[in-house]
């Protein structure tokens, strides 16, 4: 059944009055789809993901995961943020098993699941390492393993590679697409990196700014077994240009925010 978002509206009260961050957002994400939402800075991407994660409540509208209304955080949604959110005093295995411990899962089952997901992300031999002993990319793989360990119905990724250097980012994109193909997990990822979004997503939602609305929904016509070579294909370049053009339209009224640096291609 996947994830459905119905007429979502989010308004914040600020010192300068109220601000509509999201307006009339409707999403339909089927099981095992890989979806990216892309938009300029301030288009409400993080707000959208936080609402889906249940970390904040909508002003109007509602969200369903597998037909169940979201009323708060839950193990059916695994979240990975841009900044490494590992507990520095816990080793890698303890970090991956943390959510499972909170769910009251027995030590033996925890050990089995942690072992399995560390293998999935290729970090078995780092089980006893502390986060500070790992590179940025490895830390994000631990965060992904932790999110997967609770066997969520959907993986929510908030610019997970935004803090990584270009080369690590490319490696992590390939890692993520292989992981998605091997596990069949449903993914919703937000990013302002157009190339990343076009490379990863089967389908893209493009958000407009202030208020954040769905400006366009695009299906990516790229092979499912994509590798970084795919980025050189003319179809890939055409898709990227289409998205950039839609975002350029946004930048006319928000050019102070949507610099080429922010588009990051
Ligand atoms: N807690 C809050 N209180 C008031 N305004 C907020 C709050 N959170 C977000 N906003 C505002 O809502 C709008 C959308 O913010 P959000 O962080 O969701 O955008 P974004 O697309 O994720 O941006 P970026 O790409 O820069 O992270 C912005 O104008 C922001 O200032």
UniProtKB/TrEMBL annotation:
Residues 3-236 form the ABC transporter domain. It is a peripheral membrane protein. CDD domains: ABC_NrtD_SsuB_transporters. The keyword Oxidoreductase does not apply. InterPro entries: AAA+_ATPase, ABC_transporter-like_ATP-bd, ABC_transporter-like_CS, ABC_transporter_ATP-bind, P-loop_NTPase. One of its GO terms (cellular component) is plasma membrane. GO terms for molecular function: ATP binding; ATP hydrolysis activity. Its main location: membrane. The keyword ATP-binding applies. It comes from the Bacteria. Belongs to the ABC transporter superfamily. Nitrate/nitrite/cyanate uptake transporter (NitT) (TC 3.A.1.16) family. This is Nitrate ABC transporter ATP-binding protein. It comes from Aliterella atlantica CENA595.
């Amino acid at each position: 059944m996947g994830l459905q978002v119905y007429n979502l509206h989010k308004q914040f009260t600020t010192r300068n009055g109220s601000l509509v961050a999201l307006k009339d957002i409707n999403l339909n994400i089927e099981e095992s789809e890989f979806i990216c939402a892309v938009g300029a800075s301030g288009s409400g991407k993080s707000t959208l993901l936080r609402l889906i994660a249940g970390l904040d409540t909508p002003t109007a509208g509602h969200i369903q995961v597998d037909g169940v209304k979201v009323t708060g955080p839950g193990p059916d949604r695994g979240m990975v943020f841009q900044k490494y959110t590992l507990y520095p005093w816990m080793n890698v295995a303890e970090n991956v098993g943390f959510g499972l411990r909170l769910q009251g899962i027995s030590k033996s089952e925890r050990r089995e699941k942690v072992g399995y997901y560390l293998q999935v992300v290729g970090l078995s031999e780092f089980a006893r390492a502390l986060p500070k002993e790992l590179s940025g990319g490895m830390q994000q793989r631990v965060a992904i393993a932790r999110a997967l360990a609770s066997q969520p119905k959907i993986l929510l990724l908030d610019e997970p590679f935004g803090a990584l250097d270009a080369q690590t980012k490319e490696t992590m994109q390939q890692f993520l697409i292989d992981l998605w193909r091997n596990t069949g997990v449903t993914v919703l990822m937000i990013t302002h990196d157009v190339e990343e979004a076009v490379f990863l997503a089967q389908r893209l939602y493009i958000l407009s700014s202030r208020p954040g609305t769905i400006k366009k929904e695009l299906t990516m016509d790229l092979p499912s077994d994509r590798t970084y070579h795919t980025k050189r294909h003319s179809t890939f370049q055409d898709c990227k240009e289409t998205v950039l053009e839609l975002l350029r339209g946004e930048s006319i009224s928000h050019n102070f925010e949507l610099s080429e640096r922010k588009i990051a291609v």
